Amino acid sequence: METIALVFLDVLVIIGVSRLIGIGFRFIGQPLVIGEIVAGVMLGPSFLGLISPQASAWLFPITVVPLLNVLAQAGLIFFMFLIGLDLNPKHLKGQGDLALLVSHVSIIVPFSLGIILSIFLYPLLSSGEVNFTAFTLFMGVAMSITAFPVLARIITEKNLQNTSLGSLALTCAAVDDITAWCLLAVAIAVVNTNSMIAAIPTILFAAIYVCLMLTVARTLLQKLDAHYERTKKLSQSALALIYMGVLGSALITELIGIHLIFGAFLFGVIMPKNEDLMREISLKTEEFVLIFLLPIFFVYSGLRTQIGLLNSLELWLISGLILLVAIAGKYLGTYAAARAFNIPKREASTLGWLMNTRGLTELIVLNIGLNLKVISPLLFTMLVIMALVTTFMASPILDFIYKKGTVKLVKF
User: Which of 1, 128, 216, 400 has its CA 20 to 30 A from that of 275?
Assistant: First the structure.
């Protein structure tokens, strides 16, 4: 079969399997996206490649994988744009100090534990092509991520969106996202230049670009907002300009040396926060990205996840240690900060479990790390397992804490 035809066949299989398993996971009380991530792993060497190597080799030959990667990267770019679009400064009103403290402590504690864990993991599981500083920065980020989109979906499905707890969790996750992406940008700059000192020009260029986007570009985009207010319609030409802005911003950050996703995310952040405009952009963009492009990214990640590499008790114990550090760091940091603001114990504990949700955002970070050869395929697999477990456990733990399935409105 010709390569192009095989790519279309792969996409057909990917969408079908992802949707089917996603619906199955929703049936057991998990977000659809968790099932889609699991579907990606199942189509890779950890399941399909294990039970039928011939079928796996025929369906995903080496000539097809780079083409799937292009589609996956396109999905990531527009997904990051949507995340940035959803971040609204008004969410900080009334609880800004609380959200800033909780979110930053919930990053500092797991980030610090990740650095300590790196001392043990670096000689065992690094790719061997990266220096210790870059490895520790990356591990710190990997331990401290919270997946804002997955968390938002869990909060909605558990009827938490109208509670103080749900609002605080979303705000903390949003602040977490911004901080974590900044840290990851620094880590990527260090990897690309091979030292912290050499990374300074890259970081300075990135800072200048961010300032330009927050001032000049944001001012220009206000004209789009004014046009929309007059016409009450988002034309195809206006949407084309927005998409060009997303791709252009992504390209600039890639050329700077801090990865495509940062430019796309930043463009979403600076978009006018006109609710009607945001809703229309999301409606025109979200479904195609979530249904068509993101499942391809999950399968691309799944093709790189090789659970068979964990072929000894020692490796499984190391994987368990990574999971323990990730959960404890995020939970304890969040819980302690919340209690410092006199948030009730049950709500503080719930917040700690919610902030442990890593999901898709973690996969983005891990794929960047593997592409840059910061981590080895073995460590990549361990961290994918950690991302799945920490996301999967959120819903059942919430159901256990709130046995009726709905959280009472608690003011704090």
Answer: 216
Q: Which residue has the tokens 């994988």?
A: 65
Q: In terms of Cα–Cα distance, which of 17, 59, 29 is closest to 393?
A: 29
What local confidence, expressed as pLDDT, does residue 232 receive?
85
**Identity of the residue numbered 390:** T
- Scanning 60-163, the segments in alpha helix (DSSP H) are 65-86, 96-125, 132-144, 148-157
Cβ count near 205 (within 10 Å): 17
Residue-wise pLDDT for 166-223, tens only, equals 778 888 887 887 888 888 888 888 888 878 788 889 889 999 999 999 999 999 999 8
Beta bridge partners of 365: none
Q: How far is CA 406 from CA 199, 354, 355, in A?
A: 48, 15, 18
Tokens of 25: 């996971």
Question: Minimal CA–CA distance to 249: which of 217, 221, 219, 274?
Answer: 217
Q: Which tokens is 349 given?
A: 């504990």
